[in-house]
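Quick one, probably user error.
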């Protein structure tokens, strides 16, 4: 059991939690994730990226959006409650430019929506390694940005905000300023995390310029150890498993269309489970419907 030691609602459907997990907090590296199970019996296992951690105090932080039955149940938990199971850290850590033989360079982090949260520890590590860091954040409106202050502290005036409605920063999508930077020759590497469609178009934007682009994939996942095959994707024409081979891959090599099809496999079941949770009255415990 992992106890919830802090909880905060960041927007209508987005929550932050800190969980007691001292072993994971000490071992985790940027880019890694956990598999979480809210209930002991009949509990679904879901992957969530570690957005922050404190090895001294022994906690990890997760930021999640209520999009299905399990995240709704998780959001109904309060400080002092326990999570049935937390497995991690899982996945391969991010290869940080400047630490693995490459010289520091001009790195652009492109985060969309809730994908900004798992980008934070990666951006921290890139900055610490001496890279010239630019962060592009996209959201539908200014109210939906997460970790805005933290990202601004890292990037300063190289933080670029894009909103669909123009309520913060520039109106438009994240690929617009990214293309501008590529055209100026000011990008050595791009790391992107967010909605799959955003990551696909980020890759399409950088490919003509030959800019190395890494995407952190958020596929369906069950066991997190490579046994079930549920998270398989096609990268460079070969089958890869996001849980053990990733979650990060060369974005130019990912077969995005195959990934989109696989992510829609269980949509009817997800909708049925979500409706069941809604009818069970879980929204009476502080979750906005």
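Nope, works fine. Designed sequence:
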């Amino acid at each position: 059991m992992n106890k919830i030691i802090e909880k905060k609602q960041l927007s209508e459907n987005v929550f932050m939690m800190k969980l007691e997990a001292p072993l994971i907090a000490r071992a985790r590296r940027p880019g890694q994730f956990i598999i979480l199970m809210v209930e002991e019996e009949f509990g679904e296992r879901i992957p969530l990226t570690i957005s922050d951690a404190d090895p001294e105090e022994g906690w990890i932080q997760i930021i999640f959006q209520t999009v299905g039955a399990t995240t709704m149940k998780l959001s109904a938990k309060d400080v002092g409650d326990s999570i049935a199971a937390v497995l991690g850290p899982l996945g391969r850590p991010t290869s940080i430019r400047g630490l693995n033989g490459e010289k520091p360079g001009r790195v652009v982090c492109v985060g969309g929506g809730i994908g900004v949260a798992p980008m934070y520890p990666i951006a921290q590590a890139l900055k610490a390694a001496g890279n010239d860091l630019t962060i592009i954040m996209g959201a539908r409106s200014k109210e939906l940005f997460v970790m805005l202050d933290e990202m601004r502290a890292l990037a300063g005036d190289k933080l670029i905000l894009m909103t669909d409605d123009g309520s913060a920063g520039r109106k438009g999508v994240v690929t617009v300023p990214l293309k501008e930077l590529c055209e100026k020759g000011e990008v050595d590497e791009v790391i992107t995390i967010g909605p799959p469609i955003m990551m696909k178009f980020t890759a399409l934007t950088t490919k003509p310029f030959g800019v190395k682009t890494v995407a952190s994939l958020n596929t369906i996942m069950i066991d997190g150890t490579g046994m079930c095959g549920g998270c398989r994707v096609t990268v460079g024409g070969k089958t890869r498993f996001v849980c053990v081979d990733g979650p990060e891959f060369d974005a130019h090599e990912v077969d995005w269309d195959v990934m989109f099809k696989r992510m829609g496999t269980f949509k009817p079941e997800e909708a049925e489970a979500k409706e069941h949770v809604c009818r069970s009255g879980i929204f009476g415990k502080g979750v906005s419907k």
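The chain has two domains: 2-90+267-285, 106-216.
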